[in-house]
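Lab meeting prep.
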Amino acid sequence: MILAETALSLDNFKQASIAWKSRRNNALRTPRMIKHDIVMQVVNRTGLSKTKAEMAVEAVFETMKRAMEQGERIELRGFGVFNIRPRKTGIGRNPRTGEEVIIPPGKAVRFKPGKDLQSI
């Protein structure tokens, strides 16, 4: 009886392990775009050199970062709105020990997609 239960629990463990690995591998295969891909799209669409396209993309990102650091709202019509919102103080738990942890207040970047992006 104990041997049968152990074999059954091992089968369940193996199935759970296979399912977890499958989810992990699928997550790795999910299409994603990185900054290099954006630079290459700029190169392909504008005919700029790769160096100039990298500088342009980097300038846009740096400008957005600086604006958000100053608390400004960034509105890109047809794409969406980025803004900074305060995050409240909270109480969380350490999952290993169960000990309560105080989460300090902070700021979080929020993105609200525009109408064109929502329709995708």
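Slide two material, second protein:
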Amino acid sequence: MASILVCDDMRAICGVLEIALRKESHRVETVNSGAEAKRKLDSNIYDVVVSDIKMPQTDGIEVLRHARRVSPETAVILITAIEDYEAAVQALKAGAFDYIHKGPHLIDEVVVSINRALESVALHRENFAFKRDAGIRNSLENIVGASPVMDRLKQTIRIVASSASTVVIHGESGTGKELVARAMHACSPRAAEPFVSINCGAFPETLLESELFGYVKGAFTGATQNKAGLFEVASGGTVFLDEISEMSLAMQVKLLRVLQERVIRPVGGTAEIAIDVRLIAATNNDLDRMVADGAFREDLYYRISVIPIEVPPLRERREDIPVLANHFLKKFVAASGKSIVRIAPQSLRELQGYDWPGNVRQLENTIERAVALESSDELNVELPAERSKIRVAVMSGNGSIPTEGLDMGRYVADLERSMLQTALRQTGGVQTRAAELLRLSYRSFRHLAKKYDI
């Protein structure tokens, strides 16, 4: 059963087609003008449109073009009482599924054509679903980690992906915010369309505007031809604005207008261009604090924070460190052609004991460097900073302190924070049980949690 719209200025034709198609168990609506057909297409989804070509004012070709614009998956079959080879060619070039002459076998031909169109639409949807499912699997597999917090993050991505709402991803540098954005795009109905990424902190204000919105010839020195902006390039897809907090206040005003009006105006241009994109933003800064300090517009903050997502730092999911380290080991061993088969157990313990201020990116770089320097079949990893060795040494119980000394207050604070987070992970976030694990009163636990903003 399909949803079909029949458009013909001859009511008799609409009537006989409606009767015949209802006998085939299809849902059928009829209209008697091209303008009515366009209005129907704006507010309803049809599997097939059957339209006469020759109609006063708004003809079938215009209906076809409108359908291709607002509902690309809808198959359009054009019918005509006049045998016109040029009109047939024009219709097929414009994207018509079929072109039928109004002869004595019109009904049979329309029914056969509709059945073929439905098979084509079903095949297209099946192929799209297959590609989307493959994209979902591939994109989520790129987010490595099996900890509860990462499982929740992946589930959030699956749920949020189907929405058209704007998303802002919070997370420290190196946590993989762009991977999350790419996974969200791959899991969304926009997966077949472009994903365009830009780092807002990498461009000065004037250049960022032309990159996002494009420019026209002569807009500034060196603008020798028109150039489409990233919002236009990403039409139908997703725009990812990394480090949106680095955007100037003047650019924030322009971005807010784009999000509200869904149009852009190229630099130096006078005409506006309608856009259809989903915006995903990311930042490693505290936007709430920036709004309070007047460094980020409050109206833009609420516009982009429809769905906030938090990507946890690596130190809060230490159980994922061995998984990530082995993932990077395989990646770099394959590229280097070496025969390294495992990471030394002591190195794995040290990797898990390190705080990783640069998060996953820092871990990846560390493993890459270790693979490049390793000559045996077991990878020995040197940690990035001396203070990481201090922490591992003290935690292992040998009590060694370097001759140059250490910041005891910072070390104790890091250790307390880490123990609180570990206890909460082990108890599934139940604070009373976490307090019992640490032999603390609930009041003391709450005091420390507040102190370290946990």
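Talking points for slide two:
The first helix runs from residue 11 to 23.
Residues 34 and 62 are 8 Å apart (CA to CA).
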